[in-house]
């Protein structure tokens, strides 16, 4: 699958309190969460983001709390993927578990301006931006299996069915 | 040749238990204990129902702790807590900790003997890594992970590389404890300095460190990006768990020839009382260099530093003194048991005489939930674990992190300071 979208840039160490502040965690409704996505990093972001957009970030994106509300808010706002120099590990596994594929690519961040349009081949991690090609770390086979199954819930259903 | 972390994984493989495992390997592993709180459990419950399992894998090994927005702070929080209560009853979970019996989860579960040495534990809370202080592999995961593990008793993991931290030194400086050691370490390696790795703490300082300080250190492994923190169990561990354990447990050690991705060594006798400045835990400075920072609120509590020893340390400093009129001090014992113990020991009298607030157990202000939220421009010093932008309230408020000793002294001084300044 190829994802194509407009880029929003964020820096290093964006924490999950910035992605979805705890003051909104008295609900887990994705549509409600999306109204506040990235609010403490950029208070105008929820009004600017459009379905199909892509976040490109620095190192350690999603650090801090384990709240799955963070990738849920991102996904529900219509953002199709996040490309970062690196991800904090709980955010990384949460994203794949809910069926949001994300990509580690250390080179992309410095080389593209905000607002540019990029294309990602989710199969091999190839990114095309401003006439150049970048290679994100390919998704490990097991995690691709998770995304292809539609997330960990669907994968677990299959596993339970195979035990019977 | 394996590290303690690798041995725990080798002993928990869903297929082929006992085989050697290697860092980087993706494995399915059996879990010994699964937990979630009132923020993360609602999603876990709805995902568990979507999976369609007939029940949880073991009713004695799954628990929910309503501690974040509990006692229920508003209607939505009450609805979330209600989901936990109804699920726990409906699936006949043996352990459920209602308000009045609950505590901050990572103080509560070790105290109850429900998380034990040698265990493989997951929790939908990033500070689940606390239990590494007992010699367990414990890591924070997401709600869907918890749902899947509740249904199957297993979960997928990447076996982490281990990173060793050795603390040398005969004696720590006065007022220096586990919090200062871990803040100093995070300051040294950064908030992603141990990304994806197991942080193994050792050395003569660690061997002498009491359990509450070990739990404090492992609690903050996540703030360096760590997948887990762990300390090889010993006599101190045995003393802590022997009368609490509700199941059998196992002590593991690291083999002398085990491989580490990196080794960091510290002369711990040189580490001073340390403070993390806004807005990352890695932004550390010696407390003594921050005496020009005035503060509006001090919080002593949380899964990091809300244990009885922490309260005793604070009370020792506050005894016969008053909280500075320019600030508010909130003391939050982490569990009901700690609350009762502090009351019996007369610590509450000291806090109230000092004009501090004593709260029922809750995570409350640590994550900007309730019980002490900051206004725009306000500044807090807290014994908690995160000082991200907006963590304790308004996005333009600030949080500094420190030990209970620095927190108590600062509450009296009205600015960041050390107990020595009070003649202690």
Task: Give your account of this protein's structure.
The complex is a heterodimer of chains A (164) and B (424). With 164 residues, chain A is an alpha/beta fold. Chain A has one domain (2-162): Aconitase, domain 4, CATH 3.20.19.10. Helices cover 34% and strands 20% of the residues of chain A. Chain A has eight helices and seven strands. The longest helix of chain A is centred in the last third of the chain and has 12 residues, at 152-163. Chain A starts with a strand and ends with a helix. By secondary structure, chain B is of the alpha/beta class. Chain B folds into two domains: 4-266, 2-Layer Sandwich (Aconitase, domain 3), CATH 3.30.499.10; 274-422, Aconitase, domain 3, CATH 3.30.499.10. Helices cover 29% and strands 18% of the residues of chain B. Chain B has helices at residues 4-10, 41-51, 75-90, 105-111, 143-152, 178-189, 204-207, 211-219, 235-241, 302-305, 308-318, 336-344, 347-353, 404-413; strands at 26-30, 33-37, 62-65, 120-124, 137-140, 154-158, 162-168, 198-202, 228-230, 262-267, 274-276, 284-286, 297-301, 328-332, 357-358, 379-382, 398-401. In chain B, the strands form five sheets. A five-stranded parallel β-sheet of chain B has the order 15-14-13-16-17. The chains are: A alpha/beta (164), B alpha/beta (424). The interface between A and B is large, with 42 and 51 residues.
């Amino acid at each position: 699958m190829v994802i194509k979208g407009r880029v929003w840039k964020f820096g290093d160490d964006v924490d999950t309190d910035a992605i979805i502040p705890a003051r909104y965690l008295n609900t887990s409704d994705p549509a409600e969460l999306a109204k506040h996505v990235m609010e403490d990093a950029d208070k105008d972001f929820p009004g600017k983001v459009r379905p199909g957009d892509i976040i490109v970030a620095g190192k350690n994106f999603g650090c801090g709390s384990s709240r799955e509300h963070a990738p849920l808010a991102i996904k529900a706002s219509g953002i199709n993927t996040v490309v970062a120099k690196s991800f904090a590990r709980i955010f990384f596994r949460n994203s794949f578990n809910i069926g949001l594929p994300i990509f580690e690519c250390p080179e992309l961040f410095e080389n593209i301006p905000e607002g540019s349009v990029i294309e990602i081949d989710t199969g091999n991690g190839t990114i095309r931006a401003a006439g150049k090609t970048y290679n994100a770390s390919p998704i490990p086979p097991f995690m691709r299996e998770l995304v292809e199954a539609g997330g960990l819930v669907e994968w677990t259903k299959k596993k339970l069915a195979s035990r019977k | 040749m394996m590290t303690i972390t690798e041995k725990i994984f080798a002993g928990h493989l869903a297929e082929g238990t006992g085989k050697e495992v290697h860092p980087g390997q993706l494995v399915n592993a059996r879990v010994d204990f699964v937990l979630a709180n009132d923020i993360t459990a609602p999603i876990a419950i709805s995902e568990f129902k979507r999976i369609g399992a007939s029940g949880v894998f073991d009713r004695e090994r799954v628990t929910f702790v309503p501690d974040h927005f509990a006692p229920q702070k508003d209607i939505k929080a009450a609805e979330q807590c209600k989901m936990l209560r109804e699920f726990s009853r409906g699936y006949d979970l043996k352990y459920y900790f209602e308000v009045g019996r609950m505590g901050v989860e990572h103080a509560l579960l070790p105290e109850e003997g429900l998380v034990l040495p040698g265990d493989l534990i997951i929790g939908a809370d990033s500070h689940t890594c606390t239990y590494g202080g007992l010699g367990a592999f414990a890591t924070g995961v997401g709600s869907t992970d918890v749902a899947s593990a509740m249904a199957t008793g297993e979960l997928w993991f990447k076996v982490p590389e281990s990173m060793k931290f050795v603390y040398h030194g005969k004696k720590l400086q006065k007022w220096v404890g586990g919090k200062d050691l871990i803040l100093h370490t995070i300051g040294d390696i950064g908030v992603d300095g141990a990304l994806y790795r197991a942080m193994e703490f050792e050395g003569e300082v660690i061997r002498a460190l009491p359990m509450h300080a070990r739990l404090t250190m492992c609690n903050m492994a996540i703030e360096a990006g760590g997948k887990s923190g762990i300390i090889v169990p010993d006599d101190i561990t045995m003393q802590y768990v022997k009368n609490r354990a509700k199941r059998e447990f196992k002590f593991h050690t690291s083999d002398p020839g085990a491989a580490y991705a990196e080794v960091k060594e510290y002369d711990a006798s040189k580490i001073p009382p340390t403070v993390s400045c806004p807005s990352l835990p890695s932004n550390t400075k010696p407390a003594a260099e921050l005496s020009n920072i005035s503060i509006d609120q001090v919080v002593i509590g949380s899964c990091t530093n809300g244990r009885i020893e922490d309260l005793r340390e604070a009370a020792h400093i506050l005894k016969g003194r008053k909280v500075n009129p320019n600030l508010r001090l909130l003391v939050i014992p982490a569990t009901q048991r700690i609350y009762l113990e502090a009351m019996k020991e007369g610590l509450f009298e000291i806090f109230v005489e000092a004009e501090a607030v004593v709260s029922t157990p809750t995570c409350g202000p640590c994550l900007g939930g309730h019980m002490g939220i900051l206004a725009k421009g306000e500044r807090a010093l807290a014994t908690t674990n995160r000082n991200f932008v907006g963590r304790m309230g308004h996005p333009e408020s600030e949080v500094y992190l420190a030990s209970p000793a620095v927190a108590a002294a600062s509450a009296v001084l009205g600015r960041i300071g050390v107990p020595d300044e009070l003649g202690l």
